[in-house]
Amino acid sequence: MFLLFSSAVLGKRDLSMFSGRILSTDFQTGFVKIRHNFSNGRFLNKGTRISVWGPDTAYNPKNSCSAIIVGKSPDYLLLRVKQILACKRIVNFSGGQAISLRSESLVENINTAKELRIILNKKRLALASRVKNLKDLIDGYPERVNSINTKYDTLIQKLNLEWKQAIQQAEEERVYNEQEYRNYVMRLDEIDFKMEKYHIEDNNLYTDRWSLDPSLYLKK
Predict the structure, then answer these.
(1) H or E stretch including 196?
(2) Closest Cα to residue 80, out of 32, 47, 48?
(3) In which band, very low, low, confident or very high, does the pLDDT at 6 lie, cut at 50, 70 and 90?
(4) What is the 3-state secondary structure (H, E, C) of 128-175?
(5) Cβ pair 70, 80 in contact under 8 A
(6) Could you give the CA distance from residue 35 to residue 9 in angstroms, rounded to a whole number?
(7) pLDDT of residue 3
(8) Together in a domain, 25 and 99
(9) Residues 6+ apart with CB under 8 A from 18
């Protein structure tokens, strides 16, 4: 189980500090492999300088060793400890030993991540609002379709009624016009008959064809 810093030891919360446990040590090369168990470890980068000291003690630059991260994975760090032999009086580098670590770069990276999260959160809120609006529109589609169907069903019924009324009116006008047509044709025929009856010639005298054609009255 890893070492956990108590508030009495650390005082105010300090995100630059974390704990780990030594897995292996190579005193010839100065390489120390440790395991850590904190989520913010992903903000540690290769090439970062860190301080290492023993557990259950407060951080003091004079009682810490300098190291650099030369390799990392989600749960492990490979450190190269400067003057590791001299640091043995400060840190017991035996396997399984809990150690304390500190990195100013870790705090800087965490603060940068916080600022990015603020920016991303604003973008997320805007996108989430847009997503919600679109989701509401999508979820409201069936109701909207029903409303449209109801609206146009009413309009269709109204148009059908108007159509039938228009057809009926046209039919009534056709019957009326046909009746009027027959009436006016009869009246026109009556007038034509009367005009023929009361026709007046322009001249009462006419040429007698008999006197003009001898073959009608000469004997052969």
Answers:
(1) helix 141-197
(2) 32
(3) very low
(4) HHHHHHHHHHHHCHHHHHHHHHHHHHHHHHHHHHHHHHHHHHHHHHHH
(5) yes
(6) 22
(7) 41
(8) yes
(9) 36, 38, 40, 41, 100, 101, 102, 103, 106
Full residue range of the structural domain in which residue 155 is found = 150-189
**Same domain? 154 vs 88:** no
Task: Please give the average per-residue pLDDT across 22-36, as a whole number.
Answer: 93
Q: Do 99 and 154 have their domain in common?
A: no
Tell me if 49 is assigned to some domain. Answer: yes
**What is the number of structural domains in the chain?**
2
Would you state the pLDDT for residue 159?
A: 93
- Is the pLDDT at 91 greater than 60, yes or no? yes
Residue 34: its H or E element? strand 31-36
Select from 101, 17, 94, 5 the least CA-distant residue to 56.
5
Would you say the pTM of this structure is higher than 0.70?
no
Asked whether residue 33 is assigned to any structural domain, the reply reads yes
Assign residue 66 the CATH number of its domain: 2.40.30.170
Contact 46, 56 (CB under 8 A): no
Round to whole Å and give the CA distance between 172 and 161: 16
23 and 83 share one domain: yes
Please determine, for residue 4, whether its predicted confidence score (pLDDT) is greater than 70: no
99 and 158 part of one domain: no
Q: Which residues face 79 on adjacent strands? A: 32, 69
Determine what percent of the chain is predicted with pLDDT higher than 90.
65
